[in-house]
Amino acid sequence: MKKQFQKTVTLDDLAVFCENFRDEFEPGDVVSLEAEMGGGKTTLLRCLLQSLGMADDEGFSSPTFSILNQYDCDGVLINHVDLYRLSDFEELENTDILAEFTKDRISFIEWGNKFAELNSLYNKKIILMADQQDPEERLISFFKR
Asked: How far apart are CA 106 and CA 129, in angstroms?
């Protein structure tokens, strides 16, 4: 994948960043979200989905326990997958979640770097890194094929 940009964003600036970033995503995308625990993956995705048109009453939450949550964003179905609790790729295959990665949906996968078997599915990747000096800042790197 080729790096498209890298930007430092504060939590206060995240909504504006996501408004500008949302045009990077379209149905058929399978996006890896990568960061350390507490690195901002779910926060970034919530903001991004709001900028894509997710209704305020949609009930956004982390799919840590459900593994997959789905949201309607202005008529486009969004898959939000969290691989954190899965121990291996076979466990993911047994969930049938991979069948949800279709051309009419956008799929965002938290902990996307956990299983190498998924790398060929990703056409975009977002890496978040916390700033050691300022815990409110994240360095966001965006890659695409």
From this structure: 23
- Measured CA to CA, the distance from residue 84 to residue 80 in angstroms comes to 12
Tens of pLDDT, residue by residue, the chain (145 residues): 999 999 999 988 999 999 999 999 999 999 999 999 988 999 999 999 999 999 877 789 899 989 999 999 999 999 999 999 999 999 999 999 999 999 999 999 999 999 999 999 999 999 999 988 888 899 999 999 9
**What does the chain come to in residues?**
145
- Taking the CA atoms of 117, 32, 70 and 36 in sequence, report the sign of the dihedral they define: positive
This prediction has a pTM of 0.94
Superfamily name and number for 2-144: P-loop containing nucleotide triphosphate hydrolases (3.40.50.300)
Between CA 142 and CA 114, with CA 133 as vertex, the angle to 5 degrees is 40
Question: What are the boundaries of each domain within the chain?
Answer: 2-144
